[in-house]
Amino acid sequence: MFLLLFCSTIDAQFQEKKIDSLITTEFNDPNGPGGAFMIAHKGKTIYRKAFGKANLELNVTMTPDNVFQIGSMTKQFTSVAVLMLEQQGKLNVNDLISKYIKDYPSGDKITIHHLLTHTSGIKDFTKMKTISTIAQKEMKPEMMVDFFKNEPVDFASGEKFEYNNSGYVVLGYIIEMVSGQTYEDFIKKNIFEKAGMTHSYYATDRHVIPKRAYGYHQKEHGFVNKTVINFSVPFSSGSLMSTVDDLLKWQKALNQNILLNPAETKKAFQKYKLNSGEEFTYGYGWHLKDINGSPDREHGGSIFGFKSMGVYIPGEDIYVIGLSNCDCHSPTEITRNMAKIALQSVKK
Question: Residue 288 maps to which CATH number?
Fold first, then answer.
């Protein structure tokens, strides 16, 4: 369904076809894995469609209601959880991580802020050659931290921005220690339930997830089921599942200060500086860039069998989300281009 964001019915139909063709250039096989896409303006859905199959073996057609793994978009939820705990007076983003993990090497030089902004310098566990030895093991958060904490740092904290999954695993561990809840329970009770996100989950391959989209890789001979990993490994850096509708609820909850007060919200969406004074384009859990000159907040995700991308343009209250159930199809540029079309239409 495509509602009247645009000037006329004719223009609306034209824009719908334009967006359809934009998506089907990449998601061009109706019998292969697909995706779900949404555009919302001022909280109202104006484009919501699905393409391809949610399950190849059972020949199940994708719908916009399907549940996807969202990979690193999880980092938004982790950062907001940290800010919620700061709001409650249980931690401070300027705290050293040695306050929480006594034996962490360089823990007296790395702050929670460094972890949130990917400026800590600690080794990214996804780049370690030994990752395959734990990929399918059940890892407690402490075990995950122990896996990478003794690796040499890549640079001194605050010296540079370098995207880092390990930092967000450490944040998940701190969330558990400070809150007394598992990360999964904290996110469920304090974010999913408060925002009304009834189709969002901590990922699992064991539980039955209604309307789950299955993940795929593409090989030379065709599609194969995704590689199995234990979700305790990506943990708070990439283990959540959601839908396009629930992610819109997430964006609304942020806009309406349902989860955070305005002061804490501002911390998530401001640019910070390195030790040198150079500004970089990442807040807490979001890249801070622009679409055609309009500032935006965006983040993607990639995990075995899935890719995701979300773009929010605060100046026009436009939210665009793209979710894919094959890591062979990236929704990143499609989602950004959808945002450009919506932005042009709103500004007409």
Answer: 3.40.710.10
